[in-house]
Design a protein that fits this description.
Elements (H helix, E strand, L loop, with lengths): L1 E3 L3 H11 L6 E3 L2 H7 L6 E4 L8 H10 L5 E6 L14 E4 L4 H15 L3 H19 L2 H5 L2 H21 L4 H19 L1
Parallel strand pairs: 1-2, 1-3, 3-4, 4-5
Helix pairs in contact: 2-3, 5-7, 5-8
Length: 188
């Protein structure tokens, strides 16, 4: 577990929330994060505002390296449609409680078991939920990025529905129950 947070007190809180169950590494800059993240890193909690570079650049580099880790943006930056292009799995707006952090890490662990297409749908559905919770309907109605996000979700869900024909109804419900649960909890 890698925590990338430049506020020492916040980083120490996150470490305290997680260290009983995870091997936690804490760094304060993007450069430090990029020097320690590797194939053994399973999850990253990443701040968007770091002293040396934006968290979005760190995220892009992690994805560019092809590392198979799940990433949650944990930040005070209110989401806007710019998040549509970011390759994170979850987005959490600070302040984050112990339960918030634990839930995010649990969800990242669950998503690590998904195949690539299902991970992509889960990530997109999370982005949709965050935007719908933080932006007005009028803002979203005029956003090309949001419209593209909805189109991609619809396309991927259609592909997954085609795949689901190979499953029984009970198998299908079990497979996709968590995505529905995540969307409902993020919309609340």
């Amino acid at each position: 577990m890698l925590v990338v947070e430049d506020e020492t007190q916040v980083a120490d809180l996150y470490r305290g929330y997680l260290e009983d169950d995870y091997d936690v590494t804490v760094v304060e800059t993007g450069a430090e994060a990029l020097s320690v993240v590797d194939d053994e890193t399973d999850a990253v909690l990443l701040d968007r505002r770091l002293p040396d570079r934006p968290g979005a650049e760190v995220l892009a580099e992690i994805r560019g390296r092809g590392l198979d880790c799940r990433v949650a943006m944990v930040t005070a930056v209110e989401p806007d449609t710019d998040i549509v292009q970011m390759g994170f799995d979850l987005y959490l707006v600070k302040p984050a409680t112990r339960d918030d952090i634990r839930q995010v890490v649990d969800r990242l662990e669950t998503r690590a078991s998904y195949d690539e297409r299902l991970q992509r749908v889960a990530s997109l559905v999370s982005k949709r939920a965050v935007l719908e919770a933080q932006r007005t309907a009028a803002e979203l109605d005029t956003s090309d990025e949001y419209a593209a996000l909805l189109d991609e979700i619809e396309e991927l869900q259609s592909e997954l529905e085609d795949l689901s024909e190979a499953f029984s109804p009970d198998d299908y419900r079990l497979l996709f129950r968590e995505i529905g649960d995540e969307h409902a909890s993020e919309s609340a």
